[in-house]
Amino acid sequence: MRGYKEEGTTTTPFDMVMLNDLDRYHLVIDAVDRVPGLADRGAHLRQEMLDSRMRARAYTREVGDDLPEVRHWVWPFE
Predict the structure, then answer these.
(1) Could you tell me if 35 and 11 are in contact, meaning their C-beta atoms sit under 8 angstroms apart?
(2) 47 closest CA partner among 25, 68, 20
(3) Distance CA 37, CA 59 (A)
(4) Ranges of the chain with pLDDT below 50
(5) Is the dihedral of CA 25, 3, 57, 34 positive or negative?
(6) Which candidate, 62, 27, 32, 64, places its Cα nearest to that of 45?
């Protein structure tokens, strides 16, 4: 179960989601860690998600906005 963590700063919407470990990358990492037998097969994906989180955080700190791939993402099943 995840919940809100006060960090005392103003940031982007997606960065707030990341600060609370509710982002898409962290959810994939949780799945890889928790699904029996997936840790070995999903190690590469898990590392890719960690790298994506770091890249998104760095971009936000540098540019002051979310990554374009995050900011412009829309649900594809409408």
Answers:
(1) no
(2) 25
(3) 33
(4) none
(5) negative
(6) 32
| Predicted local distance difference test score (pLDDT) of residue 1 | 61
Q: How many CB atoms lie within 10 A of CB 29?
A: 21
Q: Is the separation of the CB atoms in 5 and 11 below 8 Å?
A: no
CB atoms inside a 10 Å sphere around CB 32 = 19
Supply 75's token pair.
Answer: 């649900």
Q: Cα(10)–Cα(16) distance, rounded to whole angstroms?
A: 9
Token duo for residue 63 = 């540019």
CA nearest to 64, candidates 13, 28, 22, 29: 13
Residue 43 to residue 33: CA distance in whole angstroms: 9
pLDDT of amino acid 11: 84
Tokens 């700063």 belong to which residue?
9
pLDDT at residue 9, rounded to an integer: 63
